[in-house]
């Protein structure tokens, strides 16, 4: 059977051992193991989002509606579990309330760039970028726009040590005081 889209090709591709993949704007991106700071932040955030009512799988693929060239895999996604439409590999973006990305040396451009517009285009209500290289969190809400021009209308920055209120999840707040840090990196220049 011929493959019909970049997503079909991605879904049929087996990841190299020790890597996880995601499809971002038609490009398959392979990521190796994360460092301890990254993993401890992911664990902390996951522990602070109450289950139930929220489900908070890590590294779960998302399938934006009508987007055959992307299937991002955030570090954490939060959903209420009330969806029926999935292909067994990826959850529909319409079911997701929050995505969380923890920035690493190699993901900084994707997390602040392509994923920001991709999550906004998918109308995911809240996107939390946790950046241990800058010791800050950036909460993005109110998605608008289409395609690669999509963005979030509201940005709220919090330094590590401050709590991050997640209105998309009701009264959930994320404590950041014990998040570890990494040496700074800088964003690459965009055309």
Topology:
Layout: H1 6-12, E1 20-24, E2 27-31, H2 36-48, E3 61-63, E4 76-79, E5 90-92, E6 96-102, H3 108-112, H4 114-121, E7 126-131, E8 136-144, E9 151-159, E10 164-166, E11 172-174
Parallel strand pairs: 3-5, 6-7
Antiparallel strand pairs: 1-2, 4-6, 7-8, 8-9, 10-11
- Category from helices, strands and their pairing: alpha+beta
Mean pLDDT: 89
**Number of separate helices:** 4
Low-confidence spans? none
Specify the helix fraction band. Answer: 10-25%
Structure summary, number of beta strands: 11
Q: Which sheet architecture does the biggest sheet show? A: 5 strands, mixed
CA radius of gyration is 16 Å
Strand order of the largest sheet: 4-6-7-8-9
Helix and strand run: HEEHEEEEHHEEEEE
Strand fraction equals 25-35%
Per the principal axes of the C-alpha atoms, what is the gross shape? globular
Distance between the termini: 39 Å
Describe this structure in words.
This protein is α+β, with helices and mostly antiparallel strands. The chain is globular. It has four helices and eleven strands; from the N terminus they run H-E-E-H-E-E-E-E-H-H-E-E-E-E-E. It is about 15% helix and about 30% strand.
